[in-house]
């Protein structure tokens, strides 16, 4: 029996949640620039005390700007990927697991949940797919 994409994506989502895999939706570089900029302005205006105040204000502003911008990989897989992207991810995972001689989901699911080597192969494949095909950054 062929591997069902939906069942495989459910299993991958469980694995990703178990490993707390998340992606950043917005760039952290903008937050760092805001933080550094406010710290710099505070230092110019208030000296050492201004550095402290500017740095604190910059950090709080950057945190507010990026609030909710980190999402679980499982949410990306289940809600953001198109059917075509899920099929491509499934093909990448099946190819990566070729050495494990898996022919259907009934064999695959227990293997992924109990075999750390297979789970690591799948998680690495998912991370590479998300980085290269979706241009998102994985947070370790």
Task: Give keywords.
about 140 residues, 6 helices, 3 strands, about 70% helix
Element-by-element helix/strand order: HEHEHHHHE
The global form is: elongated
* Ends distance: 35 Å
Please state the structural category: mainly alpha
Structure description:
Helix 1 runs parallel beside helix 5 and helix 4 packs across helix 6 (116-132). The relative contact order is 0.19. The protein has helices at 5-18, 28-65, 73-80, 83-96, 105-114, 116-132; strands at residues 22-24, 70-72, 137-139. With 140 residues, the chain is mainly alpha-helical.
List the helices and strands and how they pair.
Layout: H1 5-18, E1 22-24, H2 28-65, E2 70-72, H3 73-80, H4 83-96, H5 105-114, H6 116-132, E3 137-139
Give me a quick take on this structure:
The protein has 140 residues and is mainly alpha-helical. Helices cover 72% and strands 6% of the residues.
């Amino acid at each position: 029996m062929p591997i069902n994409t939906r069942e495989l994506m459910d299993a991958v989502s469980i694995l990703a949640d178990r490993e707390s895999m998340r992606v950043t939706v917005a760039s952290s570089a903008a937050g760092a620039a805001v933080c550094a900029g406010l710290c710099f302005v505070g230092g110019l205006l208030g000296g050492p005390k201004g550095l402290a105040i500017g740095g604190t204000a910059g950090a709080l502003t950057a945190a507010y700007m990026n609030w909710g911008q980190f999402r679980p990989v499982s949410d990306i897989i289940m809600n953001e990927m198109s059917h075509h992207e899920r099929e491509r991810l499934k093909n990448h995972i099946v190819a990566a697991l070729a050495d494990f001689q898996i022919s259907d989901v009934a064999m695959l699911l227990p293997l992924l949940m109990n075999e750390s080597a297979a789970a690591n192969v799948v998680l690495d494949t998912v991370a590479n797919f998300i980085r290269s095909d979706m241009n998102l950054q994985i947070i370790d």
